[in-house]
Amino acid sequence: MPSLLRNSLPAIILMLVSVLGGMTLFPNSARADLRVCNQTQNIISIALGYRADAGWQSEGWWVANPEACAIVYQGPLNARYYYLYAVDDIGGGAWDGSVFMCTQDSSFTIFGVEDCLARGYERTGFFELDTEDKTDWTLQLTEANAITQEPQ
Question: Contact at 8 Å (CB) between 108 and 59?
Answer without folding.
Answer: yes
